[in-house]
Specification:
The chain is an alpha/beta fold. It contains eleven helices and twelve strands. The strands form two sheets. It has a six-stranded mixed sheet. A six-stranded parallel sheet has the order 9-8-7-10-11-12, with helices on both faces. α5 packs across α6. The structure holds 2'-monophosphoadenosine-5'-diphosphate.
Length: 278
């Protein structure tokens, strides 16, 4: 009976109303004619473990995780991929047939795929990266840049201690830059990434000057609302190639969809439009 039921997946968070993932996965399900469902699941913190453990029995193949569960899941997962343990968080869970929980983090690969799609000639190995911010997204991006061969990753954050912790965690190729020196640290950078919330609707813009950046550098923002942030507008005016934050959101979703619904989905303009209009 279970095998005949439509496959289910979803996103677990608390609160959950803000997630764009249901629009994203539902677009793919319709597009590929898959008779499955992707559901937003608001689970309270006290019910998180029992809630997750119940999902395989209800027909769920897996779930995405969002705030506040990306770190919590690691301690209850039965298997954790190397990249998720290195990042210290997971955003994608697959349930095995026996109900065991496999946790992965696809944010870093989503970042790399998004950059490669927008700038096919870009190579992490071609020069130093500057990562602005030291939160969860920064951990995934730093990890991806190092894995992809960045010779140096400079990190800067308003709260100094968090950047220092990341520098220590990721080791040798990391350089901590004081927040007040961020503009200077653009000098010689090959890749510049804003991982902070600055520039998002309702937040102040990221006002740090990009004038010291080489015009050959790539500027990436993880903010996607709005798509064109003040940071990207100024970077483009200075001659840099820019990549907006929507691509990372879309590309990080690919491995989960493939593992739950057995079809590798495409990231294209129709998907961008579907998610933007959700
Ligand atoms: P995410 O998982 O999206 O990375 P997060 O872990 O809350 O979210 O991290 C948010 C990042 O945005 C942090 O680097 C944060 O800086 P602090 O560590 O100093 O809090 C940064 N950020 C948020 N608001 C900021 C502001 N007004 N000025 C500078 N940095 C800000």
């Amino acid at each position: 009976m279970t095998d005949e039921a439509p496959p289910l997946a979803g996103v677990v968070g608390w609160p959950i109303a803000q997630s764009r993932s249901p629009a994203l996965h539902t677009h793919w399900l319709k597009r590929y004619g898959i008779s499955g469902y992707y559901i937003p699941l608001g689970i309270r913190p006290q019910d998180f473990e029992s809630g997750i453990r119940a999902l395989p029995k209800l027909g769920f193949k897996g779930v995405n995780l969002t705030i506040p569960y990306k770190e919590t899941i690691l301690s209850m997962a039965d298997g954790v991929t190397d990249r998720a343990s290195l990042i210290g968080a997971a955003n994608t869970v697959t349930f095995r047939a026996d109900g065991s929980i496999q946790a992965d983090n696809t944010d870093g690969i989503g970042f790399l795929q998004s950059v490669r799609a927008a700038a096919p000639d870009w190579q992490a190995a071609d020069g130093p990266a500057l990562v602005i911010g030291a939160g969860g997204a920064a951990r995934a991006i730093v990890s991806a840049l190092l894995t992809a061969g960045a010779p140096e990753v400079r990190i800067t954050n308003r709260t100094r201690q968090k950047a220092e912790m990341l520098t220590e965690h990721f080791g040798g190729r990391m350089t901590h830059i004081d927040w007040s020196k961020t503009a200077t640290a653009m000098d010689g950078a090959h890749t510049i990434v804003n991982t902070t919330a600055l520039g998002m609707i309702g937040k102040p813009p990221l006002t740090i000057s990009v004038d010291a950046a080489p015009t050959t550098a790539l500027a990436v923002d993880i903010v996607y609302n709005p798509l064109d942030t003040d940071f990207l507008i100024r970077a483009r005016a200075h001659g840099l190639t820019t990549v907006d934050g929507l691509g990372m959101l879309l590309h990080q979703a690919v491995p989960g969809f493939e593992s739950w619904f057995n079809h590798r989905p495409d990231v294209d303009d129709a998907l961008r439009q579907a998610v933007l209009s959700a």
